[in-house]
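Extended Data, panel c. Modelled sequence:
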Amino acid sequence: MYRIENLELNKLISNIDKSIAQILDIALSGKDITPNQAFELLESKGLEYQATLMVADELRKRTVGDIVTYVVNRNINFTNVCVKRCGFCAFSRDHREEQGYFLPTEMIVEKAKQAHKYGATEVCVQAGLPPKMEGNLYVKICEAIKKELPDMHVHGFSPEEVLYGSIRSKSSIESYLNDLKNAGVGSLPGTSAEILNQEIRDKISLGRITKDQWIEVIKTAHKLGIPTTSTIMFGHVENSMHIANHIDIIRNIQRETHGFTEFVPLSFVSSEAPMSVQKSIPDIRMGATGTEVMKVHAVSRIMLNNHIPNIQASWVKEGDKMSQLLLNAGVNDLGGTLINESISTSAGAMHGQLMKPSTFRDMIRSIGRIPAERYTDYKIRRIYDNDDSPKEPLDLIEGNVEEIFGSYEQLANMKAHRFVHPSLKSISGKV
């Protein structure tokens, strides 16, 4: 057995099922485990489950140490109108619905400027796919933000949006990504991955970007020097083997491109998701259990430790208490302050408006770790050993946060900036 300084872990591993012990021993020796071995860990219970968490934590400590990072950022979901109808999405609206909104570019820029005023180094720009969208819309948005805020990092446009933009602009994926890069996109969110299994995708999001298309967009972005995050959504109709295979696909891409900055497990939020509310999928689960959340993050660390050093917990999905627990299961990053988050919130997530940097720091310190603010590329901006002064601008906010930054509910119910279908604009003579 591979021996480590952690005597408690050594003792635990020596007393668990031999097959699980062998898998964990492989991971501790610095080698990659297979998807089948990851499946065994994802199915573990009792002492084997506890050992899996401890090994993930040990690997985290070796690879990234005791620093836990976060980024000061803002989400800008500029439209909820979408041509797709994904079973897990409660954010999107049909163009005929009253709650369909579309923010003009100047308002997007104003939201970015407000975020900059409060110390944000990144804006995350994602939205629905509006019908008959102007092909260069995403490019124009980036150019406008960078013109006003040249130092702001634009983390924008999922592979689904990139594909849609390329189709609407009648250009190749590579050409469109080049245009986005030249316009100022610094990185892409690796969302719209869900589960990288086409059979599952056809159940939960029929007609959405395919597994192969997602991989193509990601690999092309990496080839062009555009880094991306990577994600998984679990707790719906997938099983442990699907999860293991998904992480393996991510790992294989990283071996080839080295373009992923982090991996973010996202548990399915079911309360308002159409496929849950409508019971349109017979075998749908109502989200992952707490134990499953812990295991997926731990196994993500174990599988990816040699390739992607940063495993992120989504506090929007999991809340601050579970996110804090995940710091002992291989996680080293808590994501961003967000300021606004509409997509998970609309699905029923209880968190998402704002996480103050000081709250992140308190969460991190209370378990004996060291908080640090980072940039999007994981370069450290500031380490907070024991001194919190001066406080970050977001820490000084008092009163109703929604009054300052707005909310999804306000956007969906405001009369201004209602989405009008381009065909109707043409008929009315406004365009």
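Confidence is low (pLDDT under 50) at residues 427-431. This feature is highlighted in the accompanying rendering.
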